[in-house]
Every structure is written in C-alpha cells, then in structure tokens.
C-alpha cells in the first residue's frame, strides 16, 4: 500500500479502484451526508467512476485520501486537502463511516494533513468549512487549532469558516512538544 501519510493508527493513501464499495457505503448513509451538501452515489459503479476520474492528485499534488486503519486494514473514510482554484484556498476535509465516529480518527488524520500541507507542500494557510449545525466537525476544526474566520452560505445553509496559518500551526506544534 503506497501511503501518502501515516499516523499512529491510520494510513492515508490515494483512492484505489477497490475502494469503490467503501465510498459507496460511506455516501449511502444519510447521517454521514447530512451536513455535506453531497448526494449519494447511485451504485458502487458510480463510486468507481468517481475514483477513476478523480484528478486532484495530479493537478494539485493533494486531494482527499482514503483513511485506512493500520491495525485492521479497514477503510475508515477519507481525509485530505483540497485546492479551490477560484478562491485560491486550500481546505482540510474529512468524512468517516458512522461506526468510526467519536474515536479521534478525524482529528488524527486531519492533523497529519495539516502537517503535510504546511511542511511538505509549503501552503501558507489552510481553512476548514462546516455547516453551522455540524457541531462535531466544528469541534474537530477547533481541536486542530483553527480559529473562527466568519460565516458564509454552505449549500444553502448557514456555514462557518475556520482558518490556520503555517506559522501558528508550527508554533502550536512546538508548544505541544514542550
């Protein structure tokens, strides 16, 4: 398995064709999609089509990566960085299977993505967005050290934007080590 990132419990890697049934399962759960604005895949073949046409890795050197639990090789969901060309922003995003919620995987994976973005990719600022009612995702953004940066419309719902700069991120990392 060609991992992009590795944490204590998770491997993050590019999506593979064999991830299609898991992506289909992930997006078939209405609770998982509740705050995303996304629609479910019609079938596993549609998820496979998505994977085969996903070109963010080649275009931007980053993207959403499959999260795989190291101890069991189980598909947990995805996490990663996305470049928004129109706004020239990079965001961190995450989506996990409901059975994996509340176990710290989103925070662990997203923290690793921030380190990769600020360190390896030399991104100056990373944002996080969530619908205002998505308390769990907002909590993850706050655990990452991101600060509230304003309100906006998120797929016709009130949304919030958080951000973190590279300098602040590495200052936080230094404080955590001390």
Provide mean pLDDT, rounded.
Answer: 95
Helical proportion, percent range: 25-40%
Classify the oligomer. single chain
Radius of gyration: 16 Å
Low-confidence stretches: none
DSSP summary: helix tally: 7
> Gap between N and C termini, in Å?
34 Å
Strand order of the largest sheet: 1-2-3-4-5
Order of helices and strands: EEHHHHEEEHEHEEH
> What shape does the CA trace take?
globular
Short note summarizing the structure:
The protein contains seven helices and eight strands.
Describe the structure.
This protein has 178 residues and is α+β, with helices and mostly antiparallel strands. The chain contains seven helices and eight strands, in the order E-E-H-H-H-H-E-E-E-H-E-H-E-E-H. It has helices at residues 20-28, 30-33, 44-53, 56-60, 105-120, 135-143, 166-177, and strands at residues 3-6, 10-13, 64-69, 75-84, 89-96, 125-131, 147-154, 157-165. A five-stranded antiparallel β-sheet has the order 1-2-3-4-5, with helices on both faces. A three-stranded antiparallel β-sheet has the order 6-8-7. The longest helix has 16 residues, at 105-120. The protein starts with a strand and ends with a helix. The mean pLDDT is 95.
Task: Summarize the SSE layout with pairings.
Elements: E1 3-6, E2 10-13, H1 20-28, H2 30-33, H3 44-53, H4 56-60, E3 64-69, E4 75-84, E5 89-96, H5 105-120, E6 125-131, H6 135-143, E7 147-154, E8 157-165, H7 166-177
Antiparallel strand pairs: 1-2, 2-3, 3-4, 4-5, 6-8, 7-8
Question: What attributes does this structure have?
Answer:
single chain; about 180 residues; alpha+beta; 5-stranded antiparallel β-sheet; 3-stranded antiparallel β-sheet; 7 helices; 8 strands
């Amino acid at each position: 398995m060609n991992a992009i990132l590795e944490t204590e419990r998770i491997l993050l890697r590019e999506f593979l064709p064999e991830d299609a049934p898991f992506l289909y399962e992930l997006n078939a759960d209405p609770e998982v999609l509740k705050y995303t604005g996304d629609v479910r895949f019609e079938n596993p073949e549609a998820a496979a089509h998505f994977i085969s046409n996903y070109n963010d890795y080649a275009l931007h050197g980053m993207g959403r990566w499959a999260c795989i639990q190291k101890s069991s090789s189980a598909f947990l969901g995805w996490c990663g960085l996305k470049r928004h060309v129109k706004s020239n922003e990079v965001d961190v995003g995450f989506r996990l299977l409901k059975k994996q919620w509340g176990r710290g995987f989103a925070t662990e994976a997203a923290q690793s993505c921030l380190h990769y973005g600020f360190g390896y990719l030399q991104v100056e600022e990373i944002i996080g967005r969530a619908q205002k009612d998505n308390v769990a995702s907002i909590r993850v953004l706050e655990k990452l050290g991101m600060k509230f940066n304003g309100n906006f419309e998120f797929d016709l719902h009130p949304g919030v934007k958080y951000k973190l700069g590279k300098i602040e991120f590495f200052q936080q990392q230094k404080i955590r080590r001390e």
